[in-house]
Amino acid sequence: MYPPYGAAPGFSIRNWAAWAPGLESRQDWLDWRADPRLPVGDGAPAAACLPPLLRRRAMRLGRMALECLAAVSCDVPADTPVVFASRHGEALRSQGLIRELLDEESVSPQSFSLSVHNATLGLYTIANGCHANVTALAGSNATASALLTEAMGLLADGLASVLIIACDEMLPDCYASYADEPQAPFAWAAELVASDEFTPSIQPAVPASRNLPELLDLFRFLIDPQQPVWCASSGALHWQRAGGSC
Known about the structure:
Peroxisomal Thiolase, Chain A, domain 1, single chain, alpha/beta, 246 residues, 5-stranded mixed beta sheet, 3-stranded antiparallel beta sheet
């Protein structure tokens, strides 16, 4: 069932979870939203949701994402679709594969299969015996907007809810000079349902200066009722919380 022509789809958050080094509990993140900072550190979650065989295959990016996804998916139907977004994906693993290819002229098929952008969702579906629709996105500086747009399309198609997961890792040193936003390890996930709590609008593009990666800045907006509007850094898509104004 589609919304009336011209109606803007919207959503609300039924549940959320997040993980980053030094920010492991919900209360940590609720405190963080008032004074957001870049997560730093070498820690990684236990990812106990994964069987040991799969857990050994996952690097920190996958462990962070799957830790969050497990927290929000435990009470949803198994066929709930999932939308995954990451600007850089498994860049650390990919860098290692490139070096391996240069040095040995071959790579491990298993390592390669875990470097592709939908690898984390693959581990999720295997671990849960899940046959749901899953989508993996990477849209450069429009990744955050693409994540919400894809989820809104699914909700507009009449689905009861959609799971979204966003994550990124520090870029390897050899790619650091190409970064166009702050770098940090983090992951967050949320279950979205159709609602008018958050709605999109098209407004003149506003250059945004952020001290957080855009995907993490979006998460701050979603969990902070003091933030009435979030503006994408690319294009003119803005998101407004009910009661706020653009």
